[in-house]
Amino acid sequence: MSSQPSQHNLSSEKKDRFSSSGFIFAAIGSAVGLGNMWKFPYITGQYGGAAFFVLFIVCLIAIGLPVLLAELTIGRGGRGNASSSFVKVGGHKIWGGLGMLSVIAAFLIISFYSIVAGWTLNYAVSAFSGKLFDNPDFTAQFNEFMSGNKPIMWQFVVLLLTGLVVIKGVSAGIEKFNKVLIPGLLILLVVLMVRALTLPGAGAGVSFFLNPDWSKLGAESLLVALGHAFFSLSLGMGAMLTYGSYVEKRQSLGAATLAIGGGDLLYAFIAGLIIFPTTFSFGINPAEGPGLVFIALPAAFSAMPFGTLFGGLFFILLAIAALTSTVSLLEVPVAYTMERWRWTRAKSVWIILSLSFLLGIPSALSLGVASNITLGGKGFFDWMDFIASNLLLPLGGLIVTVFAGYFWKGVAEEAGLTAWWFRIWLFMLRFVAPILVLFVFLHTSGVIKF
Q1: Would you state the pLDDT for residue 166?
Q2: Percent of the residues in the chain that have a pLDDT greater than 90, as a whole number
Q3: What secondary structure letter does DSSP report for 442?
Q4: Helices marked H in 60-92
């Protein structure tokens, strides 16, 4: 296949757009991810339950929504990739270079995020088949799984599924995929929430989650809430900016921003009403992180009626959340390479997936057979996560806020806000969000410690 697509193919790609509802579904799919299922409930319980939830909402408004709207606005205004859109809306070429940080971040993240996504698919298959519950030693099961080559095999499956969606394009691939899976995700969330809330002792978990303890709020909880508000909306990785480039002009970006933030918040809330009642009902420590999901919760499912069914549904839920995120991550470098080197969509998808798979192999091995190989106390997976999540994403978000707040002259027209809302948004972009994003960067990079 020639690396130079025909003019017809190029024009078709340029016309490929989201419908209004398709864009909302895709953006919510990007925001909803694996971390929300076990990280958000845990940090909420750790930092004061409902008190932290209120703080999280405030941070979402102060940092998440302004940066999200800025990314969408730059993307639609530039109609390019996460790098070129900055230049196309009137910025200097240096902004395009800085925008490349988001493209790199998305590429790095999909290389290791797809590994954990593969775990969820493996556990979903094992749960539905009943194999997961044959051996009650779930720690030994997890360790056995991690010590072999199965994580690499399942990572390949995740990347293949992701590629099959993205290769079909924006409207025929990404939009249709999310229009099916996001409603399915909501149905699964509600089914599992009802099951969790009807477990014996579930009330104690709900109380732990929703009763506010204002005494646990402080500087550390504020930084944690800021960081989660930023990361839970997929900011700084170019996904929302890239999706914004496919949005029709008639779409209200302000309304879309609120819908995406609300969807992310609803998912996190229902996740808490699944995790806490279940953990309290079976005497599980909700602070176990990945161990909670792949070791402790399978033990809980094995002890409840119809546990095979609900366990399978739970891991399908996680797999859907993971796949809707990997799709948005892959689209970032695919959009870049298609525009930068005029590759066809198919060529971009398969080359980037191949490179992601190869980069992911040492990450997968560092959690298993090569777990004893570390540098500075971190394995390869941890270093990839640290570089992308803790350094590149906050920097990407900071670039977006500074560019939209100070350097882009046409931001008001593209945002489409009323004069009053635009003044508020611009104030947040110039004087609030950059400072908060900087604090997030200093905290995640380890400069600020508690």
Answers
A1: 98
A2: 83
A3: H
A4: 65-78, 84-88
pTM recorded for the entire structure: 0.94
Q: Give the C-alpha distances (Å, rounded to integers) separating 71 from 85, 110, 419.
A: 10, 20, 19
User: Do residues 20 and 76 touch, judged by C-beta distance below 8 A?
Assistant: no
The C-alpha torsion from 205 through 210 and 211 to 217, rounded to 10°, is: 110
DSSP 182: H
Q: Can you spell out the DSSP letters for 351-411? A: HHHHHHHHHHHHHHHHTTTTTT--BTTB-HHHHHHIIIIIIIHHHHHHHHHHIIIII-TTH
Given 3-state DSSP classes, what are the helix, strand and coil percentages for the chain, each rounded to the nearest 5?
80, 0, 20
422 to 70, 78, 326, 404: CA distances (angstroms): 11, 19, 32, 12
Which distant-in-sequence residues (6+ apart) come within 8 Å of 62 by Cβ?
226, 229, 428, 432, 433, 436
Instruction: Please state, in angstroms and rounded to a whole number, the distance separating the CA atoms of residues 77 and 237.
Output: 18
Q: Are 22 and 169 in contact (CB under 8 A)?
A: no
| Euclidean distance between CA atoms 146 and 18, whole angstroms | 39
- Is the CB of residue 161 less than 8 Å from the CB of residue 323? yes
Pairwise CA distance, residues 389 & 383, whole Å? 10
Q: Pull the structure tokens for residue 122.
A: 């493996």
Cα gap 192→63, rounded to integer Å: 31
- End-to-end, the C-alpha distance of the chain in Å comes to 55
Q: At what angle do helices 93-129 and 150-166 cross, to 10 degrees?
A: 120
419-442 pLDDT tens trace: 999 999 999 999 999 999 999 999
Q: Which two tokens stand for residue 221?
A: 């909880």
Give per-residue pLDDT as tens, 314-353: 999 999 999 999 999 999 999 999 999 999 999 999 999 9
Nearest CA-CA partner of 47 in 272, 280, 198, 231 = 272
Task: Look at residue 152 in the predicted model and tell me its pLDDT.
Answer: 97
Q: 15-444 has which CATH code?
A: 1.10.4160
The one-letter code for the residue type at 29 is G
**Contact assessment for residue 199 and residue 278, using Cβ atoms and an 8 Å cutoff:** yes
> How large is the C-alpha radius of gyration of the chain?
21
